[in-house]
Amino acid sequence: MSANMRTMQIDETARLSGAYSGLKLGHVPVPEPGLGEVLIKVDACGVCHTEVGEIENRTPPSRLPMIPGHQVVGRVVSAPGNYSNDQVGRQVGVAWIYSACGGCGYCKRGYENLCHRFVACGRDHAGGYAEYMTAPLEFVHEIPPSLETNQVAPLLCAGAVGYRSLKLTGLRNGEALGLTGFGASGRLVMLMAHHLLPLSPVFVFARSEGERTIALELGAVWAGNTTDRPPQKLDAVIDSTPAWLPVVSVLAALAPGAAWSSMPSVKREVTKARSAGWITRDTCGKKNPSKP
């Protein structure tokens, strides 16, 4: 193994529409795994809009330079101590949650991203835009060797948050689902919904005509612009946009007692919205007795 590896890294934060000079090619030492960690040779790493947020300082890296990337698939090539024989050669994935304390109330309830010691892969710790990376064994995910790395990588972010958002809605088979935005997560959610809830019609809100066309091709029963009204009320809506207009616009399309789940927010408990539009729970699950 070479002592050095190639990386693509964030050296500065700036607006992409301005004078930003792009990610920089770097050559840094191959990291050494510590106790309880593994060294992974990266085979594929997905590209996420979160990297734009890091570059533009909306979710800034904890230090610079930073190696981004949190949809990582690779193979374990080294593990210290007694882990070596069991781990080397495994195909694994690393997602956004690089690590958390494991002992606080949030971690014990499965809410690691609310942990006060939460570490984000590619933002707080070097991620997958590199030939190698280290990761804590307890936050490394087993990937079946029969799956292709390029196809698996997006599932570690777009697929994971989409699946969780769909589950949080509590939607029952046959109830109507709305999707605001139709990027990577929206498309994966639609495929999941068709598989898990085959009787549920899917309605898509997207500002791009091209996205609306793709939605219909993938099985949506209706596709309209962000502010359009669907032909029926919706029992649940999943929002995958980082903007307020889709959220506010879709409230009028919700049926009484419908569920609304937002991927970009802290997705810990699905937000409930009454037909009048009152939000009765926030995304952290705390009751909100007052009307906005």
Task: Provide a descriptive summary of the structure in words.
The protein has 292 residues and is an alpha/beta fold. The chain folds into two domains: 4-147, Alpha-Beta Complex (Quinone Oxidoreductase, Chain A, domain 1), CATH 3.90.180; 159-272, Rossmann fold (3-Layer(aba) Sandwich). The chain is built from eight helices and 15 strands. The protein has a six-stranded mixed beta sheet with strand order 12-11-10-13-14-15. The radius of gyration is 20 Å and the shape is globular.
Give the tags:
alpha/beta; 8 helices; 2 domains; 6-stranded mixed sheet; 292 residues; Rossmann fold; disordered C terminus; Quinone Oxidoreductase, Chain A, domain 1; 5-stranded antiparallel sheet
Number of helices: 8
> What is the name of the CATH architecture of the largest domain?
Alpha-Beta Complex
What do we call the CATH topology of the largest domain? Quinone Oxidoreductase, Chain A, domain 1
CATH class of the largest domain: Alpha Beta
Instruction: Summarize the amount of helix as a percent range.
Output: 10-25%
Number of DSSP E strands: 15
Largest sheet: 6 strands, mixed
Strand arrangement across the biggest beta sheet: 12-11-10-13-14-15
Order of helices and strands: EEEHEHEEHEEEHHEHEHEEHEE
- Could you give the distance between the termini? 59 Å
| Tally of discrete structural domains | 2
Whole-angstrom Rg = 20 Å
List segments where confidence is low: pLDDT < 50 over at least 5 consecutive residues.
266-292
Identify the CATH homologous superfamily of the largest domain.
Answer: Medium-chain alcohol dehydrogenases, catalytic domain
**Beta-strand residue fraction:** 15-25%
* Shape label: globular
